[in-house]
Design a protein that fits this description.
Largest sheet of chain A: 7 strands, mixed
Distance between the termini of chain A: 24 Å
Helix content of chain A: 25-40%
Oligomer: heterodimer
Strand content of chain A: 15-25%
Structural class of chain A: alpha/beta
Number of helices of chain B: 1
Strand content of chain B: under 5%
Strand order of the largest sheet of chain A: 11-10-9-12-13-15-14
Largest interface: A-B, 37 and 22 residues
Helix content of chain B: 40-55%
Distance between the termini of chain B: 71 Å
Largest sheet of chain B: none
Number of helices of chain A: 17
Number of strands of chain A: 15
Chain lengths: ~475, ~55
């Protein structure tokens, strides 16, 4: 970095303020240009209502004297210290359920804001994060005073970044994460329409929100020389539009199809109950002897082992590259009762391919940080996943050890599945080219350069081995 | 002060919203009308008594 920028590189777009980091905390500066809107947010009761309903992230105002050494240069109005989030995720890592909940939250916040004389000036999924299993709105500066004579300025952005990826998923069942990775600013209607099947045209929602905007834009471009056309609008019309968007979102299919590859690997597949029971016993013994407050579960599947980690009061990032797995786990964690509040642990399900994790992206690669930067934890768990990475993705043991040492701050629990195992041999039946030797001694030799192997346990009844490793001091 | 638009509402987005709102308003009006007509001709079904409807013994 050539200059000492005070603001966070992700927050340069909005002139109302910016986010900055000081002493390990994230702050939000409010600019004077936003002062009237900020006062309306705080004085109208809107902030109180949203925060008490756990829809908006709470903050406290900090004074420059007593607060951080923040940038209080020209145009400064307030400095806010929001509730600090320990896990940051991006829409290209969410399951369709998560994106839909984020969309419904945006509309709910919009409805409440309208009742307090305010409106959302933008509608991007990046205004949402997940906190303890629930979506929460994090952009305190998204609210502006509402003029009922005007339509919603963020309508197109809402459609392109929430509704269109979900429409595509509804018909293709491919998840929304890849769509939003390819179109981080949202998918234009003209791009979506040819990808939808013809039967989609029978839906009024598709016709109104996808086909119609395409026609109007085309007509507008033909006569674009004239002044912007004034339209007649009011609050009742806006609420009709919001209600229609809510109805459409609730009708989008987000659940997994029955034949979803690895979904329910632990609960329903051919893996024997005895294997799971023995593995769980060894796993519980291993984690009982170590200290950790955060864990990263790679290839989490339905979250069977993530739940065990969360019982230890840990914050668990549960990663799988199958959207159906992430969605199933998200629904379970979002439903009350899976984890009692007393347990203190929380699961953050994310749809990420470990062989191709989310890169740093956006302007100057600095708007959104990489998965690796955000996912570092005290403990990394790689159960029944190493053989996929080595045999299917051809990642050598040495590179895998390097990457896992980057992700973990201290502990690693990894399962080695030998080539003789039914699941491993199935992977190479039609794909004989992979890095050899693929066996336990080669695995141990490569990992031992970065980790101390503290425990090595054969899972009874199988040839699979469970390892507990500690990162070497020199690898820290 | 001119209103500061930090995102582009999109070409024709305001017009699109006006058309959609008009269509939805039209549909809402006819739905309401249809329910009124139906309720005039169709007698509402009497609900079977539930546990809560019983007189306390």
């Amino acid at each position: 970095m050539t200059r000492n920028h005070p603001d966070h590189p992700a927050s340069y777009r909005d002139p109302a303020g910016f986010v900055f980091r000081r002493n390990g905390h994230v702050y939000r500066r409010v600019n004077r240009v936003y002062a009237d809107d900020y006062r309306q947010l705080m004085d109208s009761g809107l902030y109180e209502k949203l925060v008490s309903a756990r829809l908006l992230i709470p903050h406290e105002e900090v004074t420059e004297e007593g607060g951080p050494d923040g940038p209080a240069g020209p145009g400064h109005y307030k400095t806010l210290l929001p509730l600090q989030l320990s896990v940051i995720s991006y829409p290209c890592e969410w399951s369709p359920d998560q994106l839909r909940d984020a969309a419904l939250l945006t509309l709910k916040v919009l409805r409440i804001a309208i009742g307090h004389g305010m409106i959302l000036k933008d509608a991007t999924p990046r205004n949402i994060q997940f906190l303890e299993g629930r979506a929460i709105f994090i952009d305190t500066l998204s609210f502006e005073r509402y003029d009922p004579a005007l339509p919603w300025i963020a309508y197109r952005q809402f459609c392109e970044s929430f509704l269109f990826p979900l429409y595509l998923h509804h018909y293709s069942r491919q998840g929304t994460h890849r769509t939003l990775a390819a179109y981080p600013e949202g998918m234009p209607a003209g791009t979506l329409l040819p990808l939808l099947p013809f039967k989609s045209r029978l839906r009024a929602g598709v016709w109104l929100h996808v086909v119609l905007p395409g026609r109007v834009v085309t007509a507008g471009q033909a006569g674009s020389a004239g002044p912007r056309r004034q339209v007649v609008f009011d609050q009742r019309k806006l609420l009709l539009l919001v209600g229609n968007l809510e109805d459409i979102l609730r009708g989008i299919r987000t659940e997994a199809p029955r034949a979803a590859g690895w979904s329910r690997y632990y609960s329903e597949t051919v893996m024997s109950q005895a294997y799971v029971r023995e593995k769980e016993r060894l796993f519980r013994e291993m984690i009982a002897g170590i200290d950790f407050s955060s864990a990263l579960d790679l290839g989490a599947n339905d979250g069977y082992f993530s739940t065990i980690l969360a019982e230890k009061k840990a914050r668990v990032i549960a990663v799988d590259d199958q959207w159906a797995c992430t969605g199933t786990l998200y629904r379970a964690t979002a439903a009350e009762g899976l984890l009692s509040p007393a347990s203190g642990g929380h699961i953050y399900p994310l749809c990420v391919d470990i062989a191709d994790p989310t890169p740093a992206s956006g302007f100057a690669h600095a708007e959104r940080s990489s998965f690796t930067e955000r996912a570092q934890c005290d403990l990394v768990v790689a159960l029944a996943v190493v053989h996929h990475l080595v045999l299917t993705k051809n990642i050598p043991f040495t590179l895998l050890a390097d990457y896992l040492a980057l992700l973990t701050r201290q502990w690693l629990i990894a399962e080695f599945v030998p080539i003789s195992d039914e699941k491993a041999s199935a992977l190479v039946r039609d794909k004989p080219v992979f890095h050899k030797p693929y066996d336990a001694p080669a695995f141990e030799a490569q990992f031992a350069s970065l980790f101390d192997i503290e425990q090595k346990q054969l899972i009874p009844g199988t040839e699979r081995i469970l390892y507990l490793m500690r990162k070497k001091a020199e690898a820290l | 002060m001119a209103m500061l638009l930090y995102i582009d509402p999109g070409g024709g987005s305001y017009l699109v919203q006006a058309i959609i709102a008009a269509v939805l308003g039209f549909m809402f009006y006819f739905k309401t009308l249809w329910f009124r007509i139906r309720s005039f001709f169709v007698r509402p079904k009497s609900k079977p008594p539930t546990e809560n409807d019983k007189e306390p013994s």
